[in-house]
Amino acid sequence: MSFAPATLYGVLLNYRGALAALGEAVNKPPYKAPPKAPVLYIKPANTWIGDGAPIPVPSDVEALQMGAALGVVIGRTACRVSAESALDHVAGYTVVNDVSMPHDSYYRPSVRLKCRDGFCPIGATIVERARVPNPDALAVRVFVDGVLRQQNTTANLVRSTRRLIADVTEFMTLAAGDVLLTGVPENAPLARAGQRVAIEIDGVGRLENPLVAEGRGR
Which domains does the chain have, with CATH numbers? Predict the structure, then answer.
């Protein structure tokens, strides 16, 4: 792959539909309220693969969730930045597939379900920030074997890209080369070994990968 992040951070429940899908469960123990800060997790280096590389499907699962996500590539150190200046710290954007094994929404993502080898395809190119005037107005589409299976837009983010960067850097520093995902829309489509998934984000690009049974095609 031509681009490897310093660290790649995912965020849960940052699409309005994903948060709404929790229903009343969000107000019950152990949560008792919607999240007041971004719910973060890390996609470590073992998950990173490039455009065209095979996504391994573990033998103990029939299908995987395809998580279409806008990747915000940090261009310079961001620590306690304001929402107004947040995009000044962005180098550009890329397409990411935040793959995971099927699971219910929760606040503490399972490493076993989200961090398997090959579970994070990353686009081959970074589109410069100046070429994406508004990262919060981008159509996002997922195709499985050429059939459109999901369509959404970053206009449905709970926290805008600016707000997300500001809220994250309030408690942790993002460094140049880090990638922050803006979130995955609700109802992530499933794909199985033998199928091919493509993610498109308008103005950013297309990412396409085949799925293969774990241990094959590697």
Answer: 8-213 (3.90.850.10)
Question: Tens digits of per-residue pLDDT, 89-126?
Answer: 999 999 999 999 997 756 677 888 999 999 999 999 99
Each residue's pLDDT tens digit, 152-166? 999 999 999 999 999
In one letter, which amino acid is 107? Y
Q: Tell me which residue of 26, 61, 12 sits closest to 185, measured CA to CA.
A: 12
pTM comes to 0.93
Q: How many CB atoms lie within 10 A of CB 171?
A: 11
Taking every pair of Cα atoms in the chain, the longest distance, rounded to a whole number of angstroms, is 47
